[in-house]
Amino acid sequence: MILSCSALSVSYGSHKALQGFDFRLERGEIRALIGPNGSGKSTALQATAGLIQPSAGGVTLDGRTLSTMSRRELARRLSFMPQQPQAPDEMTVEQLVRQGRFAHVGLLRSYGPADFDAIDWALESTGLTALAQRSLRQLSGGERQRAWISAALAQQADIIMLDEPTSFLDIGHQVEVLELLTRLARERAVTVVMALHDLNQAMTVCDRISLLEKGRLVFDGTAEALAASGLIERVFNVRGRFVSLGPGSAPHFDVEIGARPPPSVSG
Length: 267
Prior knowledge:
Layout: E1 3-12, E2 15-25, E3 30-34, H1 41-48, E4 56-61, E5 64-65, H2 71-77, E6 78-81, H3 93-98, H4 102-105, H5 113-125, H6 141-154, E7 159-163, H7 171-188, E8 191-195, H8 199-205, E9 208-213, E10 216-221, H9 223-229, H10 231-236, E11 240-243, E12 252-255
Parallel strand pairs: 3-8, 3-9, 6-7, 7-8
Antiparallel strand pairs: 1-2, 1-4, 4-5, 9-10, 11-12
């Protein structure tokens, strides 16, 4: 086990955004957090990454409490990409990706060959080598998303946490990003945790899926077990069915359009 949360809770005033969240990650695992809007996915990611202070519970990394680790020490082990990351529009892609090495070089030490190799690899892995000198202002939404993923890769952490990494990407680039993250897990034993809206992406790519509802973890297991649980229809308030796409394929959820009563419209 590489990372563990126990009874993690987060409150904002009287609102309980996360309640009693138990979470275990293994090295090289790909995990998805899914759930309706407001279910606590982003809060769970941020609390697990040590970015927000829990009101109860705690997180350990290789048996060590996160709160005892410095930000730089933690950044060498864990990389986090938020849902809407911000950077100056004048910054170039390469400058952004170089920031991923700060945990290794600090503010005073100059970049060495290993740092430049990591930056070049991160740019190449995300298909951004040719755009390295472009400013973020010149990028499309999908290109900018890939630039942030590239910065996360340059950090070369053991765990990568991403909040909606396929947002703003067309289907081709969504597949590229998911394939890249899968290669990292399988070939480099990097642990990948993603908050995803696309259920079928989660079912196809991830080893395990964690389903949240109103700040509580209501399911944690394999895609096959989730398909058999009946929870998707209840938690998301939809009708549909899981179908098999063939031997070795993950279950695929087909939504039944028109099964819910239309919303009332007042005149």
